[in-house]
Amino acid sequence: MGHHFAPVTSLIALVSTVLLLSASVHGSQGDKEPVYRDCVKQCVRTNCTGDRLRGFQSTQPPYMALTGWTCRDDCRYQCMWTTVGLYQAEGYRVPQFHGKWPFTRFLCFEEPASALASLLNGLACLLMLLRYRSTVPRQSPMYHTINAFSLVSLNAWFWSTVFHTRDTYLTEKMDYFCASAVILYSIYMCCVRTLGLRRPGVSSMVGALLILVFTSHVSYLTFISFDYGYNMAANTTIGMVNLLWWLCWCWQNRRTLPYWWKCGVVVMLLHGLALLELLDFPPLYWVLDAHAAWHLSTVPVHFLFYSFLIDDSLHLLNTEKTGVKLE
Ligand SMILES: [Zn+2]
Questions:
Q1: Measured in angstroms, how far is the CA atom of residue 160 from the centroid of ligand 1?
Q2: According to the UniProt entry, where is the signal peptide (predicted)?
Q3: Distance, CA 13 to ligand 1 centroid (Å)?
Q4: Which of 62, 89, 116 marks a domain boundary?
Q5: What is the pLDDT of residues 27-73, one digit of tens each?
Q6: Is the pLDDT higher at 85 or at 199?
Q7: CATH number of domain containing 206
Q8: From ligand 1's centre to the CA of 174, what distance in Å?
């Protein structure tokens, strides 16, 4: 089947290269700008000390204090818009600040569109998990694996919502690590479905291997260096293993399982939509950027994915039943 996937493989190579080159660097043009730096310095000096700081703290709404917005953060936010104004007045392209486009803050939400989209993804997963649990009997062979997968996904969408609400050292790591965990768990789920139901030993071995991969990945990023390029390359690689394994399975079962296309469409969509990330444009209305568009675009995919999981779980349950009868 190798040649079927040749175009996919070259696409992968292209995408990984582009992703590596466009990997976000945390210093950006905007925050290197002397106007911006002086503005922040001046603002912090006048507003974030003594009586002014106490005034800031007493007037700051509780939800802002609770989500960790500091006086310095407010200075950075104000100065970012001052700098953007100057750039636009001079007819220059909008710059990024600290690795990000300028976004209009909504209450305590730093990137409101991405935060909302993450929340919607989480809700879609939760809704479909509940439907799965009410439709599929617990005896179905994949029942527990799929429940666990849903919890791993819900956890990832929770951290994604948190990260897009407030970008800090910790929330960023949690968003990245939990997202990688979902892809690895999806590979595990594919392994259980394709090999493990007949040979449980294989899934245990693959499971152990994936835990090892995850631990090394997290340790490297935490203790050695938080390298955006490496993180992107690692995610792209495990994403491709996931994509190819599921696609092979779909292809092999296309004649026996009438719902095989749902799985194929879902994995193609999820990986195709990730390409939206490559379109790096300044946010429309200072709200909607490519990342938010990508998060929004995946919301409907969960419905089709769970529809596939339900069909497949019921199918497995039926074949198991008839298998028992035949013996
Ligand atoms: Zn995100």
A1: 6
A2: 1-27
A3: 23
A4: 89
A5: 788 888 899 999 999 999 999 999 999 999 999 999 999 998 999 99
A6: 85
A7: 1.20.1070.10
A8: 11
User: Ligand 1 centroid vs 165 CA: distance in angstroms?
Assistant: 10
Find the 118 Cα to ligand 1 centroid distance in Å: 7
Distance 282 CA to ligand 1 centre (A): 16
CA 22 – ligand 1 centroid, Å: 16
Distance in Å, CA 159 to ligand 1 centroid:
9
The range of the structural domain enclosing residue 47 comes to 29-89
pTM: 0.85
Does residue 149 lie within any of the structural domains? yes
Tell me which DSSP letter residue 220 carries: I
Cα-Cα-Cα-Cα dihedral of 260, 263, 265, 268, to 10°?
-130
CA–centroid distance, residue 104 to ligand 1 (Å): 16
Residue 100 lies in a domain: no
Does 129 share its domain with 209? yes
Least confident residue range of 20-24, 201-205, 281-285: 20-24
Q: How far is the CA of 172 from the centre of ligand 1 (A)?
A: 9
> 293: Cβ–Cβ under 8 A, 6 or more apart, which residues?
276, 279
pLDDT of residue 77 exceeding 60, the answer is yes
What is the 44 CA–ligand 1 centroid distance (Å)? 30
Number of domains in the chain: 2
Q: Are residues 50 and 139 in the same domain?
A: no
25: pLDDT confidence band, cut at 50, 70 and 90?
Answer: very low
User: What type of residue sits at position 24?
Assistant: S
Q: Is residue 188 part of a domain?
A: yes
- Ordered alpha helix ranges (H), the chain: 6-22, 29-32, 34-47, 50-59, 62-66, 71-89, 112-135, 143-165, 169-191, 200-219, 228-252, 260-273, 290-298, 301-326
Distance CA 222, CA 233 (A): 16
